[in-house]
Amino acid sequence: MKKWVFMWLSLFFSVALADDNVVNVYAWSQEVSPKVVMQFQKDTGIKVNFSTFDSNEALYAKMKASKQTQYDVVEPSSYYISRMARENMIEKLDRSKLSNYGNLNPAFTHPDYDPTGEYSIPWVLGLTGIVVNRKYYPHDKLEKWTDLWSPKYRDSLLLLDDPREVFNIGLLTLGYSPNENNLQHLQQAYQNLVALLPNVRLYNSSSVPSLLIDEDVTIGMAWNADVYKASLQNPNIEFIYPKDKFVIWVDCFVVPTNAPHRENAYRFLNYVLQAKIAAMQVKETFYPTANLAARAYLPPEIANSKILSPSPEVLSQGYFQTDLNDNALDAISRYWQLLKLQ
Amino acid sequence: MRNKFQYFSVGLITTWLCIFGLLSFLVMVVMSFLQHDPDHIALWHFTLQNYEDLFDPIFFKIFIKSFYIAFMVTAACLLLGYPFAYIISRLPERLQNTALLLLLLPFWTSSVVRTYAMMSLLKTKGLLNTALLSLGLIHEPLQILFTNTAVAIGLIYNLLPFMILPIYVNLERFDISLIEAAKDLGAKYTTIFRKVIIPLSIPGIVGGCTLVFLPAMTLFFISDLLGGAKALLLGNLIEDQFLMANNWPRGAATSVLLTVIMAIGLLIYWFKSNKRINYDAAI
Amino acid sequence: MMRPFRSFYLTLIYLFLYIPIGTLIVYSFNNATFSMLWHGFTLNWYRAVLQDSSLWLAVWHSFYLALAATTSALFIGTLAAISLYRYQFRGKNMLQGLLFVIIITPDIVMGIALLILFSLSGLALGFWSLYIAHVTFCIPFVVVIVYSRAKSIDPNIFAAASDLGASELQTFWHIIVPILLPALISGALLCFALSFDDIVISYFVSGPGFEILPIKIFGLARMGVNVELNALCSLLFGLTLILVCLSQWVTRKKKL
To answer: What is this model's ipTM?
Structure first.
């Protein structure tokens, strides 16, 4: 008996839990393909602790929760980057360790959320539009966000579980810019969204493709890559670029200040900057990439898809999402809670 | 030696529980009186703002909503669970054990697994709709998933045994001769049920209701999965304050309030049952 | 009297309890990714689950955590239960009260209280934060189970042991532990199950480097219904079935 107890205890204390050759990656769910992660582990021998979040707010809260960060690479959306940089949460990247940086599309390397491009590496981009299942709404005229306010869609809309995204449509339908810092306009947008609430069935951003394929929701707002993925399995699904404008977003990799495995973080970043890896990522997840060199490796059906790569005329209707000031962000966060409580 | 053993064992558990039980709770209470600061966890500045917030009409609404759902769930569990507990308490002992084992078996798997199972059952193209459609009972699939009904079903599914067990323990213990006596005195079966059995099982009922009501307000992952991420339960409010809004003081205040509600419920139970709470029931 | 109605009612409740899990198991063998219609038998999803290394890492983490938490909670809880049974000491009622309060505290309250404590004290969220949380919520259950068994020990046995010259430690190892063994086993099984299944507390105190199974499953379930998850959940249910049968068998043996 005694022997057993001691064996048990020694097992407990002897198993080494600490594994130093790792990199802790915290990214949007579905935006980093497991295949890419696996390939990286195989090629470099570095173990990836990969975890995911569903919203920038969750990422931000998790990073604020502990003084010493445990993440080596995180993937916020563009508009959180200036905030994180301002609060010293992320570090300036050492470009000399990123030999593949040149593969990026120069159009995305000097954005206004990070004018010098020294904090962030653009990873995936996307557009937010209207999705509809034509089996259920064969003849509905759906061209604008405002059409979603129609009482016939009572209790049926899917909204993204993301405060900025939802406020974007609240602002756009009033004719304001989605990058609005004006608190009064935000309040109007909130009132506008309250009027939309009777139509809202659910908030979700992490399982949109399967919800669409299974027809658990048939109309709402969604990201173009998710809709493309769903339309491959359910041909009734259609994506619409709203005429009252839409938002283009970019999600970027950054390295937190005092990341515990900094060197491995750089190896990971440089690895995913490779054209072939970026292309593999697109083929798995369908999110358009900011990696220009990757285009050469993409199959034509992805490269020419109307959903994934809209024509320049359509694109010109899009707003690039930018940072808001703290007051505006706090207002959105407060209004968002109120929306969800109702 | 005796003292050494005693000091060591009592000291160990007391230290552990005081740090991780008592102290953490006190820290939470302190946190609930601090000021919210978006850049840090909290500002070291005393305020009652967090509690005032909770009584703001909009936040208060979630209390009402959560109470309402928890109440309905408790009522449903009682209606479903009482007859079940009664029937198995009257079975022969061998069958009783099997019946209980069958009841508890699904509950040894993770509640997330069970909630997920419920999710795939209630989907538009799930088994429930497929079955009802092919039986011709409905012509359009029912849209249950992502409604309050789905959350309630998920909660009932997860909490039913917590209602059944205390009632069963109570019914199983009581003296069958009381029923015989009532019968001999010519009472009808319904009268016996109303006048003898129900009053005697009140402690079990109250215990079961406590065990169902509290979790029904807090199991946030059920409403996350089945309710379409609308904040329905107090648990969602707490979760959001910590993991989304980054407003820890308000989240702490909500938890303190929840604890107070729990304490009140417990006091009621104490007075009703007039004896120590059955530990087994809590398990 | 009312027999058919009774069995009908029992069947109905059991159906309610088992249909969701049954569906899950049946469809984990379905040869289709999204449809609920039957497309033929396949073991592909199980193969996919078996090959998913990140999943098995989470299983291993959960297993390791449950083992560590169970061992420690068993150690602390058993010693406490024996002291509670054998000795009178100041603060005994307070200790019992504290144990009781921890049992009935809603999980979410304990989770966030510990989260606040950990983040103020600078303890990184990961294995140790989970370990502390799990030991804390397991201890009271061990105490309750062991204490109720200890009550059946004849106190004279201690006097006899010390008359025969046994030290306190010898009494502990050679008398108390063997008598309490069934309670220790059922306490350990309960702790293991509680720790292995816990979601609410773990959700708040887990960190990136140490992902455990329930959190992983929650993450996957948030991404929607999928067949691989069906297979994983069916496997877990099977595992539970085996464990419960094992514990039944142990308790049966105890009765003989």
So the answer is: 0.88
